[in-house]
Design a protein that fits this description.
Elements lengths: L7 H15 L2 H17 L16 E4 L4 E3 H5 L3 E6 L6 H11 L2 H6 L2 E7 L3 H10 L5 E4 L6 H4 L2 E3 L2 H9 L14 E3 L2 E5 L5 E5 L11 H10 L1
Parallel strand pairs: 3-4, 4-5
Antiparallel strand pairs: 1-2, 1-5, 3-8, 6-7, 8-9
Helix pairs in contact: 1-4
């Protein structure tokens, strides 16, 4: 996915145009209504605020290796982003968009890490599809996600619509809980202190602009 150097919002408009051309209007409206309902029903998203200590964790990456937060922090800061899955066009857009700025993030002394509840195979899928050069970790059961962001159960209507489109939601995960994290971004300092915590809200179409992350890393 070529996101160029546009903002996420600009890339989002391009994606919306593509989806409108690909999907029937009624189908797209089902997903849009789901996003709007999540926005309305979830007001307080992040579980950790700036100044809180992040819990250490170990999760498997896309190639089956165990990655530990505290070990990553020995090298520098960590930018954590929680996403839904490789089937989600907005997640693909966000991660491909962040990849464009990975060198800048590295130059500012930080590593980027993406976390979802999907299987390592699906983590590898999204990593290869978007040519991601950062760690993509599998958080089976959203054990880590619950400590950072809100987790919810995917509703019947969007799930059934996905199945009608030929997308097997459950095949992406190791359980049948249908639970997903609300997208959120955190910057973790070397001593495990959270210095940045943000979610745009339950509406998963919207994501944190990479410029906010970079500005925080610059001036922290």
């Amino acid at each position: 996915m070529n996101t160029g150097k546009k903002t996420y919002k600009e890339n989002l408009q391009d994606l919306r145009d593509d989806l409108a051309a690909m999907l029937p209007k009624e189908t797209l409206s089902i997903f849009d209504k789901d996003a709007e309902n999540l926005q309305q029903n979830h007001k307080s998203i992040v579980k950790l605020q700036a100044g809180d200590k992040a819990p250490d964790f170990s999760l498997v990456n896309a190639t089956g290796n165990m990655i530990t937060l505290s070990e990553l922090l020995e090298k520098g800061k960590v930018v954590l982003t929680f996403y839904r899955g490789s089937w989600c066009p907005y997640c693909n857009l966000q991660l491909a968009y962040y990849q464009k700025y990975l060198d800048q993030i590295h130059d500012l002394g930080a590593e980027l890490v993406a976390i979802s509840p999907q299987t390592p195979d699906e983590s590898l899928n999204i990593k290869e599809k978007n040519e991601l050069n950062f760690e993509v970790l599998s958080d089976n059961g959203n054990i880590v996600a619950r400590k950072f962001t809100t987790v919810f159960r995917n509703a019947d209507e969007p799930l059934n619509t996905m199945n009608e489109l030929g997308l097997d939601f459950n095949s992406h995960y190791s359980d049948d809980s249908r639970e997903l994290p609300i997208p959120a971004v955190f910057v973790i300092e070397k001593d495990l202190t959270v210095s940045f915590a943000k979610s745009i809200g339950g509406d998963y179409r919207n994501r944190v602009e990479v410029s906010e992350i970079i500005n925080h890393l610059k001036y922290r």
